[in-house]
Each structure stands twice: as C-alpha cells, then as structure tokens.
Structure of Response regulator transcription factor:
Amino acid sequence: MASPARVLLADDHALVRQGVRLILDGEPDLTVVAEAGDGAEAVGLARARDVDLAVLDIAMPRMTGLQAARELSRRLPDLRILVLTMYDNEQYFFEALKAGASGYVLKSAADRDLVGACRAAVRDEPFVYPGAERALVRSYLDHLHRGVDLPARPVTEREEEILKLVAEGHTSKEIGELLFISAKTVERHRANLLHKLGMRDRLELTRYAIRAGLIEP
C-alpha cells in the first residue's frame, strides 16, 4: 500500500486549520505533517520538510497564499499546491493558476470538495470547485470574443510583497530583513508604489491592500 500523501496546511486561523486537518487526517491516503500560520512560515516549512502537497489560504499575514504559491513554485517545482479560500472570485482563481496552484477550493465547501481536490493535485490533475467551471469558461470566452485581455497586475510581485508588509505596519528595516533586501531598496519600492498607484501615504496604501485582498480589514 502506498504511503499517504504528506500535506502542509497553511491558514492564519487555528480553528480553520484544526477543521481542515480533521477532514484530511480522516483519509487513509492523506496526512497533515506540518501547519503554518502565514505564507512565509509555509515556504520555510515546505523547504525544510518532505511535503507532497501544500494547501494554502489566500489571506494570511506577512505573505499571502498567492505569494507563497509563487515562491514555492519557483523553489519546489515538484510540490503540488492547492488554494483554499473564502473568496468566490474570478480574479483570485486566475491568479492562483498563474501562481502555480493546481486547484481552488472554497472553504464553505471544504467538507465536500477538499479531499477530492487534494487527490487530484497529488495526481497532478487540475481541480475547480463545482459551479465555477461554467462561469469561468463563459467569462474567459467573453474576454476572448471581445478582444479584451485578462486584467493585468497593477504592481509587480515584489511591489505586492512590500505593499502587504507596509500595510501591516512593518518598518522599512523589518521589511528588508524579511525579504533579504536593504531598507533603502524597500524605500525605493515604496516610493514607486505611491507614484504608480497615485497615492500619498501609508493609509492609502493600506486601503488599497485591503481592496486587493492582501490583508483583512
């Protein structure tokens, strides 16, 4: 009998992690071997542990699930990734796929969909929650027929990382230490963000970060 797939679970709410763990550990072919409270911790654990699948919440402190997925896809290309989220959102879905996730599961339907999504991911097959396929395909085809590109990212991945940390109240020195860059580089990215987004201060950046789903209000 094959060994169960080893799962890393990342969510900043302990109760959510506990509930998801109960679902997954109840299956003979899945076992949660590590838990993280934010995206940065998830990246560290995935690199340190022998993990087959990472299940990542989108909205987490320090580093979102999408940011963690991008980082993990670069560093651990064989790792399978699922996004588990409360957001029934087309933009997040496409961003998750671009970030390297093979599936997108709604928390509201986790008891129904999560196990199947995990098994599909381990088999290197895509998973989209029921009810989303028609809407997503219809929307995508509509974009193509009208000659409209999918929404472009307004900021770079690095700028997004810095925007999130600025909005969370970290100093330039703290952000530099987290991202392994100098405080001066952080300040330059921050100035670029303010200019690019037409904003004046941290408060406006924070409001933008909330609207973009990088932090919770």
Remarks:
- The chain has two domains: 5-140, 157-211.
- The two ends are 46 Å apart (CA to CA).
- Strands lie at 5-10, 30-36, 53-57, 80-85, 103-106, 127-128.
